[in-house]
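Residues pack. Consider this:
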Amino acid sequence: MISFQNVAKRYPGGHEALRELSINIDAGEFVFLTGPSGAGKSTLLKLIALIERATRGSVIVNGLNTARVTRRKIPAYRRNIGVVFQDHKLLYDRPVFDNVALPLVIAGMGRRETQRRVRAALDQVGLLGREGHAPVTLSTGEQQRVGIARAVAARPPLVIADEPTGNLDPALSVDIMQLFERFNEVGVTLLIATHDLELVNRLGHRQIKLAAGRLVDDGTTVSA
């Protein structure tokens, strides 16, 4: 599903965010990505989503070498990846329905199927019936659920999340992680970057640890 082989990422100015990183994540795994601020977690996720490209090494996602994905083909590539952001990145001038439907509209999906999938995604996150609500009328936890519904509406085989519980209290954080676990139970591969080690340890899934851009522990000895 995901393979990094001797991957490095150097940003303009010389900062090397990732250094000779090699990891493998199988289809259907639930993996946490941990490490202190500046460890390279967000950069790793950006390489998967092709928001950034590796400076050296190979990044293979869903069987594709990302180095061979041209700019024109990036939108099609991203249809197989759901992305959840810490700050939701919702469109506040549009209702919940339009926010969740956005990736389906971009993909050219028909209206009837889009409506069906949006409702199904909102049902999965416990927000069915809120389609017409403005995001600003929802709580922070509900807004995050809208972001998750948007990420899974296209039914991607892979979902990546960057600090999805960073702005939530402990109880809401557990609720969000339980949502992710339900998606994983039906075969979705999950890779979640987080600082919440207490929650990570409680859930017991594989943990990949980074520090200063390097792999500290790939978690392969930890059973999910």
